[in-house]
Amino acid sequence: MNLFLTILSGVAWTTVYVCAILVGFRDKSYAIPAAALGLNIAWEVIYALHSLSTRLSVQGIINIAWALADMVIVYTFLRFGRRELPGFVTRPLFVGWSVLLLLASFTVQWLFIAEFDWDPASKYAAFLQNLLMSGLFIAMFVARRGLRGQSMVIAVAKWIGTLAPTISFGILGNSFFIFGVGALCSVFDLTYIGLLWWAKRNPAIVRS
Predict the structure, then answer these.
(1) 110 vs 19, 39, 131, 132, 136, CA distance in Å?
(2) Average pLDDT of span 34-54
């Protein structure tokens, strides 16, 4: 059961990343909120390298695939991200902020590892940044006043990709913390799915 849930999560999140790349280039934007993107690529690079240096597992292979996909999403953020910001944010300011965001993201991941060790840190960090991402998707929808740079496929796959490890680690693994944070993710994810569904049917209202 756990292997099935791991593979389901891997497929769902890979779908999120591939679709985010396609949507990013299509809409000349980025499809993963910036803060969540920084934490994601830091998590995936660190744990992919850890898996390569210790014992390669199914999750390790998935982490490598995610890290490679996230690098392309980071490229879409660096290429198109400045146009989402106010005019006073110059290119040097944008680059500096992006570097600071990435450095902070890697630092946070290493702090989790230093505090909790590798295995617990990977789960706690992943679920907390997942909750952050769920909230930031809603904020992205509001800031962009509609569907630009977003996709129902991303929203549904993100929900499934989070629900699977919530069941695996939270319910089957008897972690009340992971179950609680995962449940909150589902609340936000389903809210975001509902907003996208509503926006598709009421485009004039959203743009007004």
Answers:
(1) 29, 11, 19, 18, 23
(2) 92
